[in-house]
Design a protein that fits this description.
The structure holds two protein chains of two kinds.
Chain A (H helix, E strand, L loop, with lengths): L17 E3 L2 E2 L2 E2 L2 E2 H20 L8 H21 L7 H19 L17 H23 L20 H10 L1 H32 L5 H44 L2
Antiparallel strand pairs in A: 1-4, 2-3
Helix pairs in contact in A: 1-2, 1-3, 2-3, 2-7, 3-7, 4-6, 4-7, 6-7
Chain B lengths: L2 H36 L1 H4 L3 H28 L1
Helix pairs in contact in B: 1-3
Chain lengths: 261, 75
């Protein structure tokens, strides 16, 4: 959004705007652009899954695509958790697909329609923190369910010398408690940083084209535009990598809960 | 020095952290490639560990970015 001085504000894209005002017992529960994009992501996910769950004997292309993703998550859990990992495929698959679709939905060029701009729901810490809490909560519930209070032995690695008993559990507890924060922060910051970078470069292009001197568009706008194409491709890669890393770390944490050390 | 100038200098210093994290990410992938080219048969099984290392290194670079953003927009 261009301000008065022609400056382009890279933070405007993260603004949450209510689309339909709703109040519930004094709390603002408006349907925002964030909610709209969550619904869009769920719709896209629904279409993707519905098209590929026909269970034909000879799978078509679409079914192969869906089976490829489920097989990928299945392999990840089998490799990291073992045969018991199959139970957690639906959870990790849902997290992975939701994050992947949300990241990609924020990169879609909806901006070519005037007045519409894409919104990346994973660029908000509240959203990623809830996703991370799903992952962390599953670890806690599964860990205490399966091992009871024995789950606390997670904080004492095997073969810890007695002389270090006062230090190692503290460090392990700290690294355990920091997991949801690192999960949430990584996704949130990666998406936010990428989108700010792209908006800053877009600002170079637009301000360069609007400049009075004739040499500015060739020297500034054109290189910035070429760079932006490359950065966009990099961002698409980051979208996929962040979703993969989230799923991978979740499966590692589930491994801790299921198998202890 | 007034507080606003100090904020901007701090945000600029935080960019050093992002640069060093870039070196760290490069180190992760270069080490992986060195190992993978010596023993290509074992490379595929280590891809999960590659991305765990990448995620750990990247997080620290992203934290530098968070500090810069906090300094510029929040503090």
């Amino acid at each position: 959004m261009a301000g008065e001085s022609g400056k382009i504000d890279p933070m405007y894209q993260f603004k949450i705007e209510p689309l339909a005002q709703l109040d519930l017992a004094g709390y603002d529960v408006s349907f925002t652009n964030s909610s709209l994009f969550m619904v869009l992501v769920l719709g896209a996910l629904w279409v993707f899954m519905a098209g590929g769950m026909k269970r034909e004997m000879v799978p078509g292309r679409w079914q192969m695509a869906v089976e490829g993703v489920t097989g990928f998550i299945n392999n990840m859990l089998t490799a990291n958790v073992g045969p018991e990992g199959k139970k957690y495929v639906p959870l990790v698959f849902s997290l992975f697909m939701f994050i992947l679709m949300a990241n990609f939905m924020g990169m879609m060029p909806f901006g070519i329609v005037p007045g519409v701009h894409p919104f990346t729901i994973t660029s908000h810490l509240t959203v990623t923190a809830v996703l991370a809490l799903f992952s962390f909560g599953t670890v806690l519930v599964v860990g205490f369910w399966r091992h009871g209070l024995h789950f606390f032995s997670l904080f004492v690695p095997q073969g810890t010398p007695l002389a270090l008993m006062w230090l190692i559990p503290v460090i392990e507890l700290f690294s355990f408690m920091i997991r949801p924060f690192s999960l949430a922060l990584r996704l949130f910051v990666a998406m936010t940083a990428g989108h700010i970078l792209m908006k800053v470069l877009a600002g170079f292009v637009i301000n360069g084209l609007n400049a009075e001197a004739a040499w500015v568009p060739m020297i500034v706008s054109f290189p910035a535009f070429v760079l932006m194409i490359g950065i966009t491709l990099l961002e698409l890669l980051v979208c996929a990598i962040q979703a993969y890393v989230f799923a991978l770390l979740t499966s590692l944490y589930i491994n801790d809960a299921v198998n202890l050390h | 020095m007034d507080a606003e100038a100090a904020q901007m200098i701090g945000a600029g210093l935080a960019a050093i952290g992002a640069g060093i994290a870039a070196g760290g990410v490069g180190n992760v992938f270069s080490s992986f490639l060195q190992g993978a080219l010596r023993n290509p048969a074992a490379a595929d099984s280590q891809q999960g560990r590659l991305f765990i290392g990448f995620a750990a290194v990247e997080l620290l670079g992203l934290l530098a970015f968070v500090i810069a953003m906090i300094l510029i927009f929040v503090a």
